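Annex B.
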Amino acid sequence: MYIYDQYDQRIVDERVSQFRQQTRRYLAGELNEAEFLPLRLQNGLYVQRLAPMLRIAVPYGLLNSRQLRKLAHITRHYDKGYAHVSTRQNIQLNWPQLEEVPDILAELASVQMHAIQTSGNCIRNTTTDQFAGVAADEREDPRPWCEIIRQWSTLHPEFAFLPRKFKIAVCASEQDRAAIHAHDIGLEILANDQGEHGFRVLAGGGLGRTPVIGSVVCEWLEKRHLLTYLEAILRVYNQHGRRDNKFKARIKILVKAMGIEQFRAAVEREWESLRDGPSTLTEQEIARAQSFFTAPDYAAVDGGASARELRTRCEAEPIFGNWVRRNTAAHRVPGYQAVTISLKATGFAPGDVTDTQLELLANLADQFSFGELRTTHQQNMVLADVRQTDLYALWQRLQAAGLATPNIGYLTDVICCPGGDYCSLANAKSIPVAEAIQARFEDLDYLYDLGPIELNISGCMNACGHHHIGHIGILGVDKKGAEFYQVSLGGSQSREAAIGKILGPSFSQQDMPEVIDKILGTYVDLRREEETFLQTYNRVGIDPFKERVYARTH
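Nitrite/sulfite reductase: predicted structure tokens.
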């Protein structure tokens, strides 16, 4: 992973010192609310319903065990003993005291972490595939490119005050595990006919009030031009994006207003003055970024023998075998697998992890995965480099800590924003809906029979829970002061990305488990052999689901 040099550390340390003084002046009444607002946002601090919320940056989701232990310490001493993994792969604290936030930032700086650009109208954390660097279907490791973008975009003066927040995702695998089509800019690393790698560039995607799937701006971009091309897109957006209405300020609105052809032409014109300029990436600079993501010291393993041993163990202990089948993924190195740790146990808020669990995960990362762990945009965690012969011992440790729920990719692996329990923007609570659905569908055999289903829940139109691209999406809405929930079907964050269609009138919170049950029952009745929920929906459309769900309630 990337290691700070002296300049990085000095910048982060100086930022902590600056914010300490700004906070002191605010608490002393020397700065008013409006004056303090941009200062706190530049340091990841929001005002929420019950307390401030601090969003901590986790570049492309990668953490080392030292950072995990520090996060455990911070949640224990400055918060209520747990942290929350966000859909931007960041970590959020829900209960810090404002006067202690400078101390938290100082603690973070001591392990090369910060909260810079986790809020505000700037380029946010660049995200990627949680299996980056180890995925069997990957063309190349996208993390060096995320790091190049991070270094370019952090505190970039030209892009510090964009019309709205700006999100970039990079993916280099056959499957899109970074939801690049739902980002302001999505980058896909592809190979051309000569086997050379370059970028397919999408722009204008995004969720929120007006959900849009991104459009292709450039089918093929040489790697050395990445930053100059990104700069051209950002400049067009910065110049022409609307600033008079925050709901129409995202780049997706600009692309839609201009049309993709005109937008592309504007970017190309802007690029003419940037192409081959100082921001063009040299081979040395690319190699420098790649040097931070070299392969760990993998053991030389007889992959065939290791796999046979694992199969034997799985057959001997079916519960373990079930976890291996659901929660581990293929690895490019023989004898290894990537492990997804579910933060979706029934009865717990999706994405929450306690201080003791964080410390356990740090120990497990040291013991089983070269001291590193990743967060996922689906609010889970990943140990990416686990030997197959260590999986059983790892599973036992995770099971004892309540972290071995074998539900990755199934209905109860819910993406869920903090909602009205914490967020001041939310119209409705999300977590109780997620917990009620998890409790209703706790039968794993039924979940496995249903097959892969993505259920995403947001408490408001900002769509932090990505409800638009869930196979089943739930959106909390406010109706004359009462909370209701709108359901959409058919969304997808895959390569065939799609925005879900609204089923019909909304439901009360108590109705939601029954509504989901009727949707699932319709799918089971209509599916053909081996057909997934999304395939059935795409074949039959929304009407059969609508008829079943509203047959008795309306």
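The first strand starts at residue 45 and ends at 47. The chain has four domains: 6-110, 142-291, 303-401, 415-550. Further annotation is deferred to the next reporting cycle.
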